[in-house]
Amino acid sequence: MTAVETSSLLLLVSFILYTLGSIVFTVSVTGKKFRQKGNESAGKRLGRVGFIITIIGFLSQLGYFFFRWDADGHVPVSNLFEYTTFFSMMMILAFIIIYILYRNNGVGVLTLPIAVVVIAYASVFPREVEPLIPALQSNWLKIHVTTVALGEGILSISFAAGLVYLLAVIDQSKASKKTFWLEFVMYSLVATFAFVIISFAFQSAHYQQTFSWVNEKGNQAKLVYHMPAIAGPHDGTKIGEGFGPLFEAPSWMNGVEAPRKFNTVIWSILGGFILYWIIRLILRRRISAAFQGVLKNINSPLMDEISYRAVAIGFPIFTLGGLVFAAIWAQQAWTRFWGWDPKEVWALITFLFYAAFLHFRLSRGWQGEKSAWLSVIGFVIIMFNLIFVNLVIAGLHSYA
Amino acid sequence: MSREIICECGHKNPEGTILCEACGKPLTDDQSSKELLNMRYEGSARRSQTYSRTPIDKIWNFFSSVKVGITLIILVLIAIAIGTIFPQDVYIPAGADPKTFYKEQYGVLGEIYKTLGFDHLYGSWWFVILLGLLGLSIIVASIDRFIPLHRALRNQKIVRHDRFMKKQRMYGVTETDDGAQIIDKARIALKERRYNIREDNGSLLAEKGRFSRWGPYVNHIGLIIVLTAGMLRFFPGMYTHEVLWLKEGETAKLPGTHGEYYLKNHKFILETYNQNNKQYEKSLKRAGTVAKNYQSNVTLYKTSDHHVLGAKPELHKVEDAGIRVNAPLEFNHYQVFQADYRLNEFNKMSFKLTNKKTKKSFGKLSVDLFNPKKEYDLGNGYRVKLIDYFPDFYFNDKGEPASKTDVPENPAFIFKMFTPDHPKGEVSFVAIKTNLEPLGKNDYKMTFAGVETKNVSGFVIKKDWTLWIFFVGMIIFLIGVGQGMYWNHRRMWLQRQGNTLVFAGHTNKNWFGLKKDIRFVVEKSGLSEPVDRLEQKSLEKEREIQA
């Protein structure tokens, strides 16, 4: 087995273990039915099992990381697949630290499934071993990217804990603005999952549709779609027979192969919609209402505390990696430490947002629900920077 | 303006003080009536909470408000986000005209974007003002809180007023005959927990982590330094940014170094990954050619110190270097970067003077495309004059030959050929794949005889004194964040009144940690356990889970 194959296998193992861990943690918080056997509640015992599964999964993913490093010949964080996978690993690491500090199962109920979705999402991007372009050939690749991922991973725990808090406390007996937006968050997670399913379905069917178009650099080029084209490239011509396109992608989308990615987003939104309603019809209530049933025994003030603690730890780490290390490297590679590149700007937005979060919390006394909503918005900003800035906005960081 | 408030303990407090700086006695009616004291900023006299008469007061109060501060943070956040909707003018494709680019690419929205000046948002006056306001808010809000807080903590006395003790969140009373011994044991326990202990007449103040109270002010100082560094860049001399295009084999003065340094470019190297590379085979097949290295091999020279103005400088070699992306050449606070390149740029073109009938050649000449000679003597009465030269040739609006730029992308020449047969000369127009005879039929022509190309390296020369200021500012910021967030300021008061021991405890955050310390002291000393008067059921539950 080559190093790449070994690394893929180990990643698959951790993917399965995290899925299993999600289930165990969910069962561990469900409460009464399992309570009180002997001195220790079954919930606590199950929680420990979940934690051990998570640790093994993490070790396996660590194995993926080092085998991949061997195959790459450089630290494996240089394209979207590798970075996103590494981000999920840092999320798990942050969860492990939080679990050791607080011994609480509640955070695991959402952290693990989110990590699962993130790994699945990462796997959709090209997974070949890639060489480094000159701008990336630096020790700062290791230092900058890993610190950013760790910071973002810890901040994601804030989101997971905040979301658990909201699912536990928001009144689900009647529809309101709050239930709508909470349900919207759940829909987004479902849509991400739908995106993964659709991608793998068409990948295994080897679906291909080629267009000829003028790419983002102004050159005549071919663009290969791996999903049927709902949105074709702007002013593109279809080569050969096949479905679509129903309309053209807007011309202002400037990322690398933006129309193809835009088409994928449309598929995800539609697929997410279908999947969401299937789940909803099975549950016969809002997904968040179903979660509330699971989470009713959760210690919500502790969730609030963890959500804040995660920001308190994650914010300076993100600042160090995303602004300080980033600036030092940018000075070396691009001759300037700050250039208002979209990715840089969105890192600064993340910084400002969490700065505002801390002021709201420490000076204005925003706790509980308000603080939890802020942690959700913070995660949206991080995801925006990871996905959208690469997809729509052209910049120095738009690799993959 | 300042009326002092003299507390019954004798301490003089500035106007606006809520709790006496020394003994903690509530000085205002609303604090006296409350069950628990508001301990924020130690109840000290903040200017913003005291005066609001003059316009200066009002401005001060505006900027000292955290609400205003957060609003400014959000406004900056929204502004910089808007700047990423469409590319900034510095990032639009080279050669595109910003006047038309936004409209052509992005339609009406693009036109609006451009009209509002969002295409250079980060340098616009209103954005700079917004940052200035944010900076002002940081400074004012910090001063407004730091000075009174510092005063209050410096003036705090060990013995506190009864009502101060009673209105603390952690409060307990112990009835005992053996007060002195309990205090002795508590002292030992507190020392074990690394508290600083001060005593006055049988009363005790244990304090830990006061420095964490300065965390917010330290991190704000860091941010102010960063903003100042940003402002300093507008001052000449703080920041140099120059571009130098240098052909292989040439030496030039490094711009921005005041003639002190010269650079010779020996060779530009562009390496790409081998398509047959086993390791990266699959991805190279998908991506095509991928660059592996951009490098210029150079020699750096320094001019001699006593160099006479106008005279040819005497160059002393400093070092040979290979400048690569991610590995700039660094010397004397300058950085020279490998920033760009042009491959195979036309450098020299050669021609032969040929007789059209006999095809016989009468000598060869080579035109330096950057510095052409006017006349070329080929001997034996044959010579060629270069009448006109167009480095980047095209026909202008009037249909006349002209040059778009000074870069020899498409060179064209008008030669006058002097031969023994035609002593008055014949005119020939020569361009790539073109050979015209604009003034009638010629007997001779200029035949193309080869071209010499050279690579050109694009260097960026930088000197940036603000770099270190930014860096130091960010480090101070991070230290301040850690200081304020990971430590907390805990205090315990223990006072003896006859057979009664009164205990109170306070922390600025993390009550759980304080309670752990209190429990430790209680166990070691035999003090009665104080109660948390804010404790709710949920906190009860938290303790159960964390224990």
UniProtKB/TrEMBL annotation, chain A:
Any single GO BP term: cytochrome complex assembly
Molecular function, one GO term: heme binding
Domain Cytochrome c assembly protein: 78-201, 273-397
Chief localization: membrane
Keyword annotations: Cytochrome c-type biogenesis, Membrane, Transmembrane, Transmembrane helix
GO CC terms, sorted: plasma membrane
Compartment list: Membrane
Ranges that cross the membrane: 6-29, 49-67, 83-102, 107-125, 145-168, 180-202, 265-283, 306-330, 345-362, 374-396
Record InterPro entries: Cyt_c_assembly, Cyt_c_biogenesis_CcsA, Cyt_c_biogenesis_CcsA/CcmC
Membrane topology listed for this record: Multi-pass membrane protein
Protein name according to UniProt: Cytochrome c-type biogenesis protein CcsB
Species annotation: Scopulibacillus darangshiensis
Upper taxonomic lineage: Bacteria, Bacillati, Bacillota, Bacilli, Bacillales
Automatic annotation (TrEMBL), chain B:
Subcellular location(s) per record: Membrane
Keyword Acyltransferase: no
Signal peptide per UniProt: none
UniProt entry tagged with the keyword Membrane: yes
Keywords assigned by UniProt, alphabetized: Cytochrome c-type biogenesis, Membrane, Transmembrane, Transmembrane helix
Membrane topology: Multi-pass membrane protein
GO cellular component, one term: membrane
GO-annotated biological processes: cytochrome complex assembly
Pfam families: ResB
Chief localisation class: membrane
Domain ResB-like span(s) in chain numbering: 66-425, 441-518
Residues spanning the membrane: 68-86, 125-147, 217-235, 465-487
Record-linked InterPro entries: Cyt_c_bgen_Ccs1/CcsB/ResB, ResB-like_domain
Protein name: Cytochrome c biogenesis protein
Species assigned in the record: Scopulibacillus darangshiensis
Lineage, opening ranks: Bacteria, Bacillati, Bacillota, Bacilli, Bacillales
